[in-house]
Amino acid sequence: MKSSKSQIIQRSILSLDNSNEPFQTQILDICEILGIQIDAKNQTSSLDQQEQQKTTPYGLREEWALRWLLKKIQSDDIHLDRCGAASQTSDILLIGLSPCIDFRAWLLFRVLAIQIPLANTARLLNTYKFMVIITNTLQWLQQKVDQEKESSPQEREDVSVTAESSSATLEASPVEAPQRSKKRKREFTAASPSEPSQTVDPNIKALYKSICSAIRETEALTRDLPDGSRGFCVEYMKASLRSSPQDAAAILGSSFTVTDVIIRGSDEPSAEMLDGCISPMLALWNIRTDGKDDPAGHSDFVRNLN
What we know:
Elements: H1 2-15, H2 23-34, E1 36-39, E2 44-47, H3 49-54, H4 60-75, H5 82-87, H6 103-112, H7 118-127, H8 130-150, H9 153-172, H10 202-220, H11 231-241, H12 245-264, H13 271-286, H14 294-305
Antiparallel strand pairs: 1-2
């Protein structure tokens, strides 16, 4: 009976590979199958307590689901020119545009990644090029932020007012003969501590927060237990999350750009908020390759395991 139910769940998950339903429908289906709750308002996800008791130590169905999810967020190509279209959507959050920019995909990922054996998670991340997905998604976010800065009505208004003011001043001011300057005591004027806050697109905040949450959970898997029993699997996970210095720098640069917008647009910015936005990306930076003989060793290590 239990085996029959497991087979039904397996078929339900595998059928999603050939489903023509939009991603937003499929992710709701798989969350229902696995008993995973996604809180869209607070951008959190969790496994039902009832399902936690039912889940086997091996987590086979979670592994099927993680494979399906990685294929979805990997196969979808993000075109940077879609940033403009995304910013004009009437949806509250980026849903239905692309699996990898749907914040729920990352919330689902963070639950699945810790439910299956560590070596299996590492193998899937390497097979579906998880670090490439991270890099592309963060670059998309950075371009979206840059586009919104360029098209900000407030910025255009400020530029227009400044230009008109400067023009009027030049036309109204008579040309005067140069005068000798008089020495005067220099005074220090402190800059205003409160700059105009930028409006943060909820799409940006929700997606970036979800990505940070997923990376934080995944990076935690690179730490061994006190008894050292997971040493080999931990190294495998590190290898799957390792990238070149150039790619690691690109990830860090994109995260700085997005974090700056989020912090500036927050009503109550805090050190905790900054840490939550930056520390997961710094963790990826810390496990990067050194750019010399590490990449070859990293490739051989992963190739021998797959």
